[in-house]
Amino acid sequence: MIFMIPIHTFTLILHLFASAAYASRQPFLGGCLKSNSAPANSLAISAISPSQCATQCWSEREGTRYAYWDSRSDDKCLCSPFPANAEDFTLNNEDEASKTCAEGIAVYVRAPESPNFQVERKRAGKGGLGDVSRRAEGLCPTPLTACSVAGNSSIYECLDLNVDLNSCGGCVNGVFGSTRRAHSAVDCTSLPGVASNAATCLYGQCRAFRCNNGYILTKGHICVADS
Q1: What is the pTM of this model?
Q2: Residue 56: which CATH number?
Q3: Which of 13, 30, 45, 96 makes an SS bond possible with 109, Cβ 3.0 to 4.6 Å?
Q4: 18 by DSSP, 3-state: which?
Q5: What is the pLDDT of residues 82-137, one digit of tens each?
Q6: 3-class DSSP state for residue 94?
Q7: What is the enclosing helix (H) or strand (E) of 15?
Q8: Prior bond to 143 cis, omega within 30?
Q9: Can you give the residue range of the structural domain that contains 38?
Q10: How many CB atoms lie within 10 A of CB 102?
Q11: Keywords in UniProt for this one (predicted)?
């Protein structure tokens, strides 16, 4: 006997699965801030290392997406649901070996898992796939967006467009149900002049922190040819 899952039940299952994946995702170093520039509403917690700071922010402070670690401050670990001002980021302070900052404040971002969800056309409701497109924002838990997957119009993946390295600032294959790519969408791994594993996505914008030979890093975290 074959049971058909009602669309609202099927969507709820996707929400629960994505939420669990989101909660288990490890943080990554998003960059380095100038001293004393963490968001004013950040909450201090006790931690003895950058990694402990990040993981405890996620587990102890609901809604936290950013952890700020300042080894020279009395309140070394700060948790916040909000990012710092983009202009407060500094250049070339990342310590790659320890995944922290040589000086200033290390910013850790809670990056979501990006699971692929199979969505069958017969489960898309009376409006078909187009109806799913109109409800694309409700297919993934906040702050994720349902983005199309190249080569298969019946599959979407839940991405955080503020931090996703391969789909930064928008869905590179379009929002689920649409074939149009967002003008703001960028694959940070394909930027010219950027060294391997030397870019991140923050606030929906690619930020390079190291360039290949023949390129120089600008204040805007962009690699340009050294003329």
Answers
A1: 0.55
A2: 3.50.4
A3: 30
A4: helix
A5: 877 767 776 556 665 567 887 889 888 775 544 444 443 333 344 334 444 444 55
A6: strand
A7: helix 7-24
A8: yes
A9: 26-110
A10: 12
A11: Signal
